[in-house]
Design a protein that fits this description.
It comes from Aquitalea magnusonii. This is Cobalt/nickel transport system permease protein. Keywords: Cell membrane, Membrane, Transmembrane, Transmembrane helix. A two-stranded antiparallel ribbon has the order 1-2. By secondary structure, it is mainly alpha-helical. It starts with 16 loop residues before the first helix and ends with a helix. β1 and β2 form a beta hairpin. α2 runs antiparallel to α5, α6 runs antiparallel to α7 and α7 packs across α8. It has one domain. The longest helix has 31 residues. It is built from nine helices and two strands, in the order ααααββααααα. The radius of gyration is 23 Å and the shape is flat.
Length: 283
């Protein structure tokens, strides 16, 4: 497996836990192949030099963190949506792989701010009589907006750029070789572990006459998890030794070199100006 980071969507199939887990693992591997296909399409971001693209999207992510007005966050989020459409990345994919997950995780943190941040109380919850303040709403909106915007730009980078090109761009921009090596080995190891887990649970399921239930199902999951943990430690050393034996030292070598063109600079320079404008405006 070669590509990209993702968050697998939910499944619609029933069955016991092992069956659902196998389906989820297979779905995750399919997502990586879909991401690889997207990176080969003819889109706006796909046609940019990976180094310029990495710097530009990183600059836009920093802009989302620095933004102190909801209007600015909304404009940046709109820019992310526009870039996705111009790069042939469906909004449904962004919703499933970024927006929904970020909303669930960030929402857990943002909800307490509605009640804990002091300020002008807009209304109170019935029965509990907890007051929701205007300042609390703004704090929660900023948290969710920054998280959603940054996640959108990060996902666009991963979907429109092959992973090896991302690593090569990082090395070209001076990222330490140790960090690039760790990212490269971790990425490969994740997919090896996913494949191993899928094969292991598929083998377990094929030896069962009927789906286990109750206590037996929990015992099967616990035993399989323990075996998978042991294999994980073994695979970590095997993957590392396999990569080192093939001459991997953290440097990325591709069949073709990166070349910047005028359109790369036309995309990079405005993106670099966005965080500077935000800092200048609030200086």
């Amino acid at each position: 497996m070669s590509e990209q980071s993702f968050i697998a969507g939910g499944h619609r199939h029933g069955g016991h836990f092992a069956e659902r887990l196998v389906h989820g693992l297979q779905q995750a591997l399919e997502h990586s192949l879909d991401a690889e296909a997207i990176s080969r399409q003819r889109g706006l971001l796909q046609g940019l030099d990976p180094r310029c693209k990495l710097l530009a999207l990183l600059s836009l992510m920093i802009s989302g963190i620095l933004a102190s007005q909801l209007v600015t966050l909304l404009l940046l989020f709109g820019l992310a949506v526009l870039l996705a459409l111009l790069s042939q990345v469906s909004l449904r994919r962004l919703y499933r792989q970024a927006w929904l997950s970020v909303l669930l995780f960030s929402g857990v943190i943002a909800v307490p701010a509605l009640f804990l941040v002091p300020g002008e109380v807009l209304f109170r919850l019935p029965l509990l009589h907890w007051g929701i303040s205007l300042q609390g709403l703004r704090s929660a909106a900023f948290l969710l907006g920054r998280a959603e915007t940054s996640a959108s730009f990060a996902l666009l980078l991963m979907l429109t750029t092959p992973w090896m090109h991302v690593l090569k761009a990082m090395r070209s921009l001076g990222v330490p070789v140790l960090l690039v090596a760790l990212l490269g080995m971790t990425h490969r190891y994740i997919f090896v572990l996913l494949q191993t887990a899928s094969q292991m649970f598929e083998a377990r399921r094929s030896r069962m006459l009927a789906p286990p239930s109750g206590r037996l199902a929990r015992q099967v999951v616990a035993a399989s998890s323990g075996v998978l943990l042991g294999k994980a430690f073994q695979l970590s050393s095997e993957v590392h030794l396999a990569m080192v034996s093939r001459g991997y030292r953290g440097d990325i070598y591709l069949l073709h070199s990166f070349h910047t063109r005028r359109r790369d600079w036309c995309a990079l320079l405005p993106a670099l100006c966005v965080p500077l404008l935000i800092l200048w405006k609030h200086a």
